[in-house]
Design goal:
The protein contains 5 helices and 10 strands. The chain has about 190 residues and is an alpha+beta fold.
Length: about 190
């Protein structure tokens, strides 16, 4: 077995949860964080992320920034090129641990620094989200890889773009969200 721990920042964040179990974590390490029956809805989340990235790209191309709903990230100016595969987006931290993963987005801000963003198709529960420690570890870890491992530039911001599905609108008015054989489901962006 390898003596060097290679782990994604998201999985590393599991140790920050109040429900953390050292034995469960040890088992997950041995399973390389691929427990059985843990792959539900993969295509749907991929499609949602593509839609979210298209919306961000549209705003950046059309307006050169993001609308006020994306505050405090309205100073994002462009996408930063980075390796989009976990085997390339990685580095060995000074602790000896190898960090790897794939951030959803890295942007260049107006001041030239970098910003790491992760998209979440979920409700923004703010600081009350029980998974927030994982998300914090995820964005901080990706920022560390980008800045110190890949030298993409100084990372000064990291955050989450929540895309909240407005299901109550559709449930309360189904006919108002159906036109020409298509169901329209609104999403509201919120940041953290």
């Amino acid at each position: 077995m390898d003596t060097v721990l290679a782990i994604s920042p998201r999985n590393l964040g599991l140790i920050m949860l109040q429900t953390f179990c050292p034995l469960c974590f040890w088992i997950l390490i041995r399973m390389r964080f691929h427990p059985p029956f843990d792959h539900g809805g993969g295509a749907l989340w991929t499609y949602m992320q593509q839609i979210q990235e298209a919306q961000i790209g549209h705003h950046l191309e059309e307006h050169g920034c993001l609308p006020k709903e994306f505050a405090p990230f309205c100073d994002i100016k462009s996408r930063t090129e980075f390796p989009k595969h976990w085997s390339k987006f990685r580095y060995q931290h000074k602790s000896g641990v190898i960090l790897y993963g794939i951030p959803d987005e890295i942007f260049t801000l107006a001041d030239g620094s970098q910003c790491v963003i992760d998209h979440k198709t979920a409700m923004n529960k703010g600081t009350g989200d029980p998974f927030l420690p994982i998300y914090n570890s995820q964005t901080i870890g990706y920022a560390d890889i980008a800045e110190n491992g890949l030298n993409l530039g100084k990372v000064t911001k990291a955050g989450l773009f929540y895309w909240e599905v407005q299901r109550a609108e559709v449930i309360d008015d189904p006919s108002g969200h159906y036109e020409k054989g298509k169901v329209w489901v609104p999403f509201v962006p919120k940041t953290l």
